[in-house]
Amino acid sequence: MPYTAEHKEATRRRILESARRLFNDRGFAQVSIDEVMDQAGLTRGGFYRHFRDKAQLYAEAVRWFLCPEAPKPWQDCSRRKRQAERVVDAYFSRDHFSDRESCCPLLTTPADILDGDAEVRSAYGAVLKRLVAIFEADLGDRDEALALAALCIGGMVLARNVEGPLAQAMRGAAYRRAQNMLKARPC
Q1: For domain 5-64, is the CATH number 1.10.10.60?
Q2: Over the Cα atoms of the chain, what is R_g?
Q3: Do 23 and 111 form a contact (C-beta atoms < 8 A)?
Q4: Which CATH architecture has domain 74-183?
Q5: How many CB atoms lie within 10 A of CB 12?
Q6: What is the Cα–Cα distance from 52 to 66, expressed in whole angstroms?
Q7: Model confidence over 147-181: pLDDT tens digits?
Q8: What tens digit of pLDDT does each residue of 137-147 get?
Q9: Range(s) within the chain of domains with CATH label 1.10.357.10
Q10: What is d(CA 160, CA 107) in angstroms, rounded to the nearest whole number?
Q11: Which residues of the chain are in CATH 1.10.10.60 domains?
C-alpha cells in the first residue's frame, strides 16, 4: 500500500531537520547523505524520493530555517522590544553562540556557500534577505539594516572561529555595537 501524502511530507520534514542540524554543525562537505538519513531514522534508499541530490537538500535545509515549524527565540513576542532588538539579543546570546545544530544557517561555513551551486547560494540569500528585512522594518534605513546584518553575522562567525577570551570579547563587542545601532534609531 502506498504511503499517504501526509506520511511523505512528515518524512521529508524529518530529513530536512536532520540535514539542517548536521549541515549547521559540520558544513556541507563533511556530511554525507547516509548520515542525514541515519539521523532521520531512515535508510539512504528513500532519499531520492524526496531530493534530487545533496545540493538540493542543503538549499532546502537552509530555507527550512525560515519555516514556522522551526521557531526561533526572537519569535517570542511577549517581550516589549522591537523585532530587530529581539533578533539581536537572540543572535548574540550564549545559547545561539553554543548551539551548532540549531543556529542561524548564515553562521555555517561560508566556504560551503561559496563552493555551492546557484540553488545553495539562492537559499542562503533568502535567509539573509529575511534578516535584513527585519532590521530594515525597524530601522527604516536599508544601509543601516545591511550593516547590522553584516555585524551580527560577521561578529558571530569570527567569535566562533577563535577560542577563549577572544571569542567572548568579539561576541560582546559586536553585540554592544549592534545595540548602539538600534538605540541610535528609536521606534
Answers
A1: yes
A2: 18
A3: no
A4: Orthogonal Bundle (1.10)
A5: 16
A6: 21
A7: 999 999 999 999 988 999 999 999 999 999 999 99
A8: 999 999 999 99
A9: 74-183
A10: 9
A11: 5-64
